[in-house]
Amino acid sequence: MQLLLAAVLTASTLVTPQLTGPLPVGTFDAHLVDSTRLDPFRPAKNRELMVTVSYPAQRRGEQAPWLTPGLATAADPIISSPAFLDVPAGTVDWSGTLRQARVDAPPIKAKWPVVLFSPGLQGPREFYATAADDLAGRGYVVVTVSHTHEALAVEFPGDRIEYGAIDGSPETTKKVIDTRVADMRFVLDRLPSLHRWADTSRVGIAGHSFGGYTAGETMAHDRRFDAGVNIDGAMEHTGDGGTYAPGEVVERGLDRPFLLFGGDLGERELSHVDTSLTRSWADFWPNQRGWKRDVHLDNGAHYGFSDLQWSVPQIGAVSQERRVGLIGTINPQDALKAQRDYVGAFFDLHLKHRGTTLFDRARHPGIRLVG
């Protein structure tokens, strides 16, 4: 009986997907403090952030944990709760699950283009770690950002955890997008001191959900960002019950390349031809003056654009209904390959000027070119 109970209580480690690029990847976390800006959520303090840098490296060192032990302890009750995975707390050994990237591995000494990444609303950057590592293995310095006091939990040096607690009011939602734009611009300011091989003359930005809005809105405010990707995110700060409030990126468009990459919510889709989820993509489309494409992942759900796409199928305690709601019905391996290849091809095209045919016709299961 004791042995059986121990087996039930043993958390499962998961297997992260192999990198699809040709290069090994190194990684490190960094604590940044913006001495010029007070935190909008904690006005008595300067704004501080935690970021993760993934970069082409030599294959040396230990593999990085997906989540640090401190963050895993803080986040597990939230992620496992009925509001999300709906599994018993402790089901997954988040910190025992290892990324393919290696901690502090010596960098490959060449100038690499840069991509900054912003998570979904209240999302921790760690749940986009393998996507960032995969892009880094294709020859990029990738920086993922946790937006402090909004993200559900952020771990700082000294085992300090800062929790996020925001409401859905229009006023708060506007504060969130303004704060995120300032965060991304500040991180780019600091990047040369973080990684000497980052080529800040070639900069992309991407994000998922509200992070996709962040990507577009940051480009609307800062011309240093050369190309961007919005992954399944409405570009508005309307909030709960507010009047439709699209971002400046929607109203003005951009004169630089921008990719819309959408998924499904039941029978509805996020695209510029379907306004049932948001009209912001439809409003943005005619105003976009630079290169533009609208790529759709059929049968792919919203959270399938995060690391849940590969992790949820490995968590046997997640119900089939919950799994479909989180990551859709598309084959998880097909979804991963499509996401990696299309985001990689977009940045290869616009930051490395490498040609691709992926935007001429669909070449992956589930991919549909909307426009």
Instruction: Please work out how many helical segments DSSP would assign.
Output: 10
How much strand? Answer: 25-35%
The gross shape turns out to be globular
- How much is the average pLDDT? 96
Q: How do the SSEs run, as a string of H and E?
A: HEEEHEEHEEEHEHEHEEHEHHHE
Terminal Cα span: 59 Å
Extended strand count: 14
Assign the CATH superfamily: Alpha/Beta hydrolase fold, catalytic domain
The radius of gyration is 20 Å
CATH 2nd-level architecture: 3-Layer(aba) Sandwich
The share of residues in helices is: 25-40%
CATH topology: Rossmann fold
InterPro entries: AB_hydrolase_fold, Peptidase_S9_cat
Protein name: Prolyl oligopeptidase family serine peptidase
Keywords: Hydrolase, Lipid degradation, Lipid metabolism
Organism: Lentzea miocenica
Care to describe what's here?
The protein has about 375 residues and is of the alpha/beta class. It has a single domain, classed as 3-Layer(aba) Sandwich (Rossmann fold), CATH 3.40.50. The chain has helices at about 1-10, 70-80, 130-135, 170-195, 210-220, 250, 280-285, 310, 320-325, 330-350, and strands spanning about 25-40, 40-55, 65, 100-105, 110-120, 140-145, 155, 160-165, 200-210, 225-230, 260-265, 270, 290-300, 365-370. The strands form two sheets. Strands 1, 2, 3, 4, 5, 6, 9, 10, 11, 12, 13 and 14 form a twelve-stranded mixed beta sheet that branches. A two-stranded antiparallel ribbon has the order 7-8. The longest helix is centred in the middle third of the chain and has 25 residues, at about 170-195. It is globular and about 50 Å long. Keywords: Hydrolase, Lipid degradation, Lipid metabolism. This is Prolyl oligopeptidase family serine peptidase. It holds the Pfam family Peptidase_S9.
